[in-house]
Specification:
The complex is a heterodimer of chains A (about 120) and B (about 140). By secondary structure, chain A is of the alpha/beta class. Chain A has one domain: HprK N-terminal domain-like (Udp-n-acetylmuramoylalanyl-d-glutamate--2,6- Diaminopimelate Ligase, Chain: A, domain 1, 3-Layer(aba) Sandwich). Chain A has five helices and five strands, in the order αββαβαβαβα. Chain A has a five-stranded mixed sheet, sandwiched between helices. In chain A, β2, α2 and β3 form a beta-alpha-beta unit. The radius of gyration of chain A is 13 Å and the shape is globular. Chain B is an alpha+beta fold. Chain B has a single domain, classed as Heat Shock Protein 90 (2-Layer Sandwich), CATH 3.30.565.10. Chain B has a five-stranded antiparallel sheet, with helices on one face. Chains A and B meet through α2 and α3 of A and α1, α2 and α5 of B.
Chain lengths: ~120, ~140
């Protein structure tokens, strides 16, 4: 029987998706939900506490969106290049940054399998 | 407490700085993270609108003990049909704005959703004025 965890810390999320942590947030957070989108307007519509954001949109505005939405973990899929400017902004706002070679679909699937919940409202 | 910020049209790299400053200031007060998010999201969407559509603009913030009132004014093309602009999915954003993950026609409805009071006025060819209040 597979025991599914209801929440996961940054290291466990990273391990699960075979990622690389580019930046730790230095604030402990247990993640229970995930949201995958390249549309930041959509991210801004929902309650994002304890949520990891999976995106392929590798821009400063992805970090800004996380900041405004109280998201403390961003996963950039498909080995996107994260710039220094993005890392600096993420650091200022205590947002952890992970990059992975997996696709958004793969990352979503792995987190879903572990019991992560979607964000509906 | 009153604060004022200028917003540069077209400067996508700086977009969000004013909203970020306001959020950081509000963190010093005893405001719940959920309310803080509502305020930050409303301001960020409004700031993005100025950057995406106008030549320049300003954000004036007034923080009271139990509310925040913000006026975002810009000089730009204005909005021809406000009722239409408030519809989800309606957008006049450029391809550049869409590549940033915005311009899907959800900004104004989202500002309304996150505010307790919102007044939007505009003169086509002159500019737009958005006033919003969030209670806490």
């Amino acid at each position: 029987m597979v025991v599914q965890e209801k929440y996961m810390n940054l290291d466990k999320v990273n391990e699960l998706i075979s990622g690389t942590i580019l930046l730790e947030s230095h604030t402990s957070c247990d993640y229970t939900k995930a949201f995958a989108s390249d549309l930041m307007s959509d991210v801004l519509r929902f309650q994002m506490e304890n949520t990891v954001l999976i995106t392929g949109l590798c821009t400063v505005q992805a970090i800004r969106t996380a900041e405004m939405s109280n998201i403390s973990c961003l996963i950039f899929a498909r080995d996107k290049h994260v710039t220094e400017e993005m890392i600096e902004l993420a650091k200022e706002n205590h947002i952890a940054v992970i990059v992975t070679g997996s696709t958004m679909f793969e990352v979503s699937g792995k987190l879903y399998q572990q019991g992560f919940e979607p964000v509906y409202r | 407490m009153r604060m004022s910020y200028s917003i540069e049209g077209g400067d996508f790299s700086a977009a969000g700085r004013a909203s970020s400053e306001v959020k950081r200031t509000l963190k010093q007060f005893n405001i719940s993270p959920l309310v803080l998010r509502r305020i930050a999201v409303a301001l960020y969407e409004a700031e993005m609108n100025v950057v995406a559509h106008a030549r320049n603009g300003a954000m004036q913030v007034d923080i009271q003990p139990h509310s925040i009132s913000v006026v975002i004014e810009d000089e730009g093309p204005g909005i021809e049909d406000i009722a239409r602009a408030m519809e989800e999915g309606f957008s006049t954003a450029t391809e550049e704005v869409r590549q940033m993950g915005f311009g899907a026609g959800m900004g104004l409805p989202n500002i309304k959703k996150n505010s307790d009071r919102m007044i939007l006025t505009s003169t086509p060819g002159v500019g737009t004025r958005l006033e919003l209040t969030v209670n806490f």
